[in-house]
Structure formats: structure tokens, C-alpha cells
Amino acid sequence: MTTTAPLGAEEQTDAPAVPAGGRRTARRRIPTGNGLVFVLPFLLVFALFMVWPIVQGLWMSFTDSSLALRDTHFVGLDNYTEAFGDPDVWSSLGNTVFFTLISSVPLVLVALAMALLVHSGLAGQWVWRLSFFAPYLLPVTVVTLIWTWLYQPELGMANQLLDTLGMAPVGWLSDESVAMWSVAALTVWWTVGFNFLLYLAALQSLPTTFDEAAALDGAGAWRRLWSITLPQLRRTTGLVAMLQILASLKVFDQIYILTKGGPNGSTRPVLEYVYDVGFTGYRLGYASAVSYLFFALVVLVSLVQFRLFRRED
User: Fold this and answer.
1) What contacts 289, CB < 8 A, 6 or more positions away?
2) What domains can be seen in the chain, in order of their start residue?
């Protein structure tokens, strides 16, 4: 006599077993190597154009490599020892730190003021947004050309404005005490649009409930700004400040095109000194050592900033 299996028996035998607790155990999916196929091209390009130059440059910093000589010899820490005692390294580092201080502070404060102005509902929103962000889209060569004409000692608009006000002309690019401030003004006008965009995006994402509640309680606009809006922008301010300090420390383009590091080296940053030593003085090994010392300084500043902002959060 033959027996027939109950309906659905085959499905029951194929279903995963249910343990006594009543929970169905999920099957583990064994990872495959297919994802490596998609990542491999990026890894190859990254290793070729990023990892290998870093390793090669680090090795070069321990040698007397030169563009004028074919033979290269290992010199150990001699390049680093010379860099610590080189007054030009310290003067260029001082110029870099000074530029970072006088450019980063206004780039944060001015960007915040611009974002608050646009966020307040000022008439002609698209005009303000365009005028604030448009300079950031210009290439550095165009920006320096514009400001070179503005800084012309006789025909420049800056000195003409001073003459209209009855003031003496200023050597914007020839006076050692003024040249770095001139570069900082150019940098603020050129790059403040990016920080403005970050602040504006943060303002538009803030909840309005706190501000509305404070307004109902009789708090004025300035009180709401200092007690409600600015505290909510703390994380954005930390991000903008960190990005701006790192960008200012790596300044090179506008100074090299505008002043060539002059007058008398008063505006020469570290990266321009590395360029001059490596490609003008042909000392690639020493230039590599200076660049890696500066790289260590940038990493240290980044870690300190990250630790401070993380502690505040």
C-alpha cells in the first residue's frame, strides 16, 4: 500500500530549521572576491600616483639627490639636521603661520556674516548668492591678474581711492609690512565663497522651533543670534575653521604669482621655499626633507584641531 505525503511536505523539508527558542537563524552569506575587481583600478591608480611618490620622496629626503648630479648618495639625517638650522626655513615658516592667522580669522567671520545676511531673507537672493560665490569659481591666475591691477602703485584703484580721500599712496606689493596683508585680502575675496556656502547650508538645516519660541518669549534678534543660532553652528564653525587653517598653511599659488615671495622674502611661504630649493637650487633631497618636516607639522595641527573639536562635541 502506498502512502501519499501531506500537502506542502516538500516545502517543509526545504525550509530552514527553527530552533527551540522560536527564532529563525539567518544563513551566513559567504563574501566573494567580485568586489575586488571594481576596487582594483582605483587601488592601482592610488598606489601609482599617491603611495609611490610619497615613498620615493621620503627616501629622497635621506639622500643628496640633485637635478644637477646623476649620482645619489645616502646621507641619513643630514638634510633634516640642516633644515632645523636653516634660517630661511624658519622665516618662511613664520610667513606661513602669519598668513594663516590673518587670513583664516576673516575667512570664518566674513563667511558667517555673509551667510546670515542671505539667510535673513534679504531682497534679491540670487544676486547676493552669485556675488558672494562667483569669485571662488575663478582660476588663481585670473584672480592674481585682477588684484595686480588693483595694487598698481600709480594706476591701481586702491591708491586712487586713497588719493581721493587725501591719503598717501601705499606700496601694496613693494612694502614689506603691507605685502602679506595684501595677499591675505586677495585670498579672502577669492575663497570666502566656499565657507559662505557651508554656513548657508548649515543655517538652512537648523530647526526653527527654538528661534520661534524665543521670539514669543520676547527675545530680540541679537539675543536669538548669540544664544540660539551661533551655538547650533558650533560644529559647522569647527569644520570651516579646520579646513581653512589647513588650506592657509598650504598657500602657494597666489603668493608665487603675485609677489614671487617678495619683497625680500617677506611673503615667501614654506612651499615656495621648497620649490626654490628643489627646482632652482637643484637640491631635491634637501627640499624633500623640508617638505616632510612641514608635512609632519600639518598632520600635528590637524590632530590637535580634531582633538579639540571632538572634546567640544
Assistant:
1) 61, 62, 79, 80, 82, 83
2) 99-264 (1.10.3720.10)
